[in-house]
Amino acid sequence: MTSGLSIPIQVAFSQLLDAVDQLSKQEQHQLLLHVLRKHEDDNLVVTHFASETVLAKDWSTSIEDGAWQDL
Questions:
Q1: In this predicted model, what pLDDT tens digit does every residue of 26-70 receive, in sequence order?
Q2: Could you give the dihedral angle defined by the CA atoms of residues 19, 25, 26 and 32, in that order, rounded to the nearest 10 degrees?
Q3: CA–CA dist 31, 26 (Å, integer)
Q4: Residue 26's pLDDT is what?
Q5: Cα angle at 17 between 55 and 10, to 5 degrees?
Q6: 23, 34, 45, 55 from 39: Cα distances, Å
Q7: How far apart are CA 26 and CA 9, in angstroms?
């Protein structure tokens, strides 16, 4: 995926997001896998945040709020 060549550039985060949005879904998937492999030590943190988003769909409901209101 990379040739080992490194060119330092300054890019605003919004510019980076725009560039990623222009990638195909397959390229976005490959980019995500690449980033996760580069930061394997941080994967627990990444997993935590990914899990939190998924769980919030089930937990952030009025039914759940009612179930926990007396605690």
A1: 999 998 888 877 777 666 666 666 677 777 777 788 888 888 888
A2: 60
A3: 9
A4: 93
A5: 130
A6: 21, 9, 10, 23
A7: 25
Question: Which tokens belong to 56?
Answer: 């919030």
Q: Where are the domains of the chain?
A: 34-59
Within 10 Å of residue 36's Cβ, how many Cβ atoms? 13
Distance CA 1, CA 34 (A): 9
Angle at 39 between CA 7 and CA 20, to 5 degrees: 55
Q: Which pLDDT value is given to residue 17?
A: 92
Residue 18 has pLDDT above 60, yes or no: yes
Q: Which two tokens stand for residue 39?
A: 């930061």
On whether the CB atoms of residues 50 and 43 are closer than 8 A, the answer is no
